[in-house]
Queue: 2 jobs
Job 1
Amino acid sequence: MKLSDLGENRVVAALTRALALGADVRVGAGDDCAVIGRPRDARWQLLKTDVVIEGVHFLPGDDPRRVGWKALSRALSDIAAMGGTPQHALITLAAPPHFEMARATALYAGLRRAARRFGVSIVGGETARSPGPLFLNVALTGTVERTRCILRSGGRTGDALYVTGRLGGSRADKHLDFIPRLAEARWLTENFKLHAMMDLSDGLATDLPRLATASRCAFNLDESSLPKTKGCTVRQALTDGEDFELLFALAPRHATALEAAWPQHFPRLPLTRIGHLLPPSALRPPPFPGHDHFA
Amino acid sequence: MKLSDLGENRVVAALTRALALGADVRVGAGDDCAVIGRPRDARWQLLKTDVVIEGVHFLPGDDPRRVGWKALSRALSDIAAMGGTPQHALITLAAPPHFEMARATALYAGLRRAARRFGVSIVGGETARSPGPLFLNVALTGTVERTRCILRSGGRTGDALYVTGRLGGSRADKHLDFIPRLAEARWLTENFKLHAMMDLSDGLATDLPRLATASRCAFNLDESSLPKTKGCTVRQALTDGEDFELLFALAPRHATALEAAWPQHFPRLPLTRIGHLLPPSALRPPPFPGHDHFA
């Protein structure tokens, strides 16, 4: 059996099944970040690792500054999805020996720019020789107040489902320049009691079922309401992936307050109600296959 | 200018120069781990990232269980070198789509075995598609009492220099099965006031000058005293690399007590005094070029 036969969800599930976890691990593999701390601590630590690979997540001709920005921003998006604040990053750069130092410097310039903008300290940088493509791994820590830590698994039947921004078409351009939704997530968790949240990395068609499954719910998706990137079809909005927008679930009684307050604070970023969570008996398969890393 | 023209030391130094660091960063890039915490905190956090790459750190035919063991143990060795205790690990596995699931499972079996033995929780596992070789990145956190945190930079003129174990020949076999010196480092920092410590990853000829330079000292190395692996020459002991033994500096007045107590606690692991630190005016180049990842 090859990884491509199983698909990413089942590969990760099989590899991380029944890992022995210490008493201070609140959430292990399976959410956007790991969550560390004792049950009553005021703050918990968030841990995330994420890699971008030449030929998979970016192309050899892409501007290395934008690749560096993307590498850190992907991990930042996961910290945002937990409601957290990022803190410290460690960088692993594996590059071929003939790689130009100017390109490595430009990669780091992009990493530094994202770090500065979002208040991250880059506290370690390892380099290794790659006999193949360029690999750029980011390990990132963050912190979150216990009461504002939002998992994928807290959604409840009837919750309204929202996404920020517009979906689809990211791979044409936006995937190298996206803004991780840290400010939006912090505002949301300060002002509303979200039940579940995640970031959209593999496309709504893949990620919404993940949130619903983690919450032991089914879902209804109103495809006509989808906030599509200009020029994109519904299918593209569902399956292109790399949107790095927030998907979250909120009790419907708070929907009116949220929809009134959001545009006051984020006038340039759409917030769209796209459906709601259903009782688990209503389970149905997702409408389209989403992005799978091994497909 | 290519990475291979500069060499690893200068590449890392150039990329990590003048990184903006938060007030809670005690040590950034340049030591075995990053150190996070406020100056008077009783405990500090340690952060490390480390990668093993097929064709560089292991061969395609190597037993994947041993590769997994090595991947985690390399990072554990860096936690040991700070005097710390490991806590949480995040794994990034980038593998080609045709990679067999049984091999991925075996890699994880090796990771789990090292995690269980050294008290680590694996709290996250990401997989990605690699268009080239297998990459296995480990991000690891740890903790250390402030008073037992040992940097590379604290060595003083006259300090005795010690190494654990035997050096050289690791690449023949030991590099896949080595034991990170966590127990030894914890015992050392509990019982002795070490001035500086690091782990030997690139060979003593590369790593000893790093410790001496960080401590603003020169050094004397008694090559006739080197604890060589059976069958190895002095040159191999100095330059083979991947020993993953501890190198540390201690005030010479404590040498007798250390040499008397060590064999009581670690009867099967040699501890060898190999030289001492000198005033910086005595600076001289290392005797042999050590291992360089881009060479």
Note: Residues 68 and 111 of chain A are 5 Å apart (CA to CA).
Job 2
Amino acid sequence: MNRFSPLLAGAALLSTPLLVSAETAVAPAPNGIEFPADYRDWKVISVSHRTDHHSMRVILGNEIAIAAARRGETLPWPDGTILGKVVWKEGAEPDWAPAIAPQAFIHVEFMEKDSKKWAETGGWGYARWVGSDLKPYGNDTNFALECVGCHTPVKGRDWVFTTPATFPPLPAGH
Amino acid sequence: MNRFSPLLAGAALLSTPLLVSAETAVAPAPNGIEFPADYRDWKVISVSHRTDHHSMRVILGNEIAIAAARRGETLPWPDGTILGKVVWKEGAEPDWAPAIAPQAFIHVEFMEKDSKKWAETGGWGYARWVGSDLKPYGNDTNFALECVGCHTPVKGRDWVFTTPATFPPLPAGH
């Protein structure tokens, strides 16, 4: 076989973008928010255990969010903030039952702050992707009303449930 | 006053390292492990809620750990892995009581894998820093025996309690 076959070379050139596409293409949310493909590389804001929902969560932030959290300036969060929440079913750790840890992935959801663009929903744009195939949540833009409804108890906290956790050492002056 | 006074210049030169030192100097663990000053920038391996210890945790990894977790190759974890666990007291979220979230920081602890260097403690070197002033845990190197004792139930999991959580999309072939 000719190692330099133009046909094979063409196939090789095509295969790379197709593979990338198959691995990363996730449909946007109904309001147009794109899936942040690098979210799992984001830094930690906090964690939580919803005992009522039987789920474990990690709350991540993009760089603007992390910088704001570390400065303690999150009321309000600055425009450009994106907060991500990864949600898994709860379950006992296999060798230490009183430790509750993530089991199957449920969904990942995001809030992005843009006071003007998202003025109708409190300055935040919402998006959620469900299941390991990351199906966008909601059939149309009305899905965000459900998000706003659930977040209404924390309207006075700029619509955010999460309090950033402490990661010592603290900056000088804190 | 002479802006170019050698005395003032000397003071200025000294002041920068002194400030840096005050912000970042953390004493090493009794076994010589240095505090990983950038741990809060590490990526997430998983989270947990120790209902017996009334604490919330996030488990972070250095780049070698994250790469191993994403490849699913953690039995054993490769040499060079460092796992970090940040531990806070548990408490209810202020506006959603069934959600348990971090309160005060308790400690941060690390396991670093070096099969040769740490052969006497199962291939892992242990370290913990306690409280917001990050005081090293233990009076001498015997402190690691306590770590090994607690981790013995997971000897068959390369001494690690944590199962890496799933962050879709999964790589092709998984």
Note: The first strand of chain B starts at residue 43 and ends at 50.
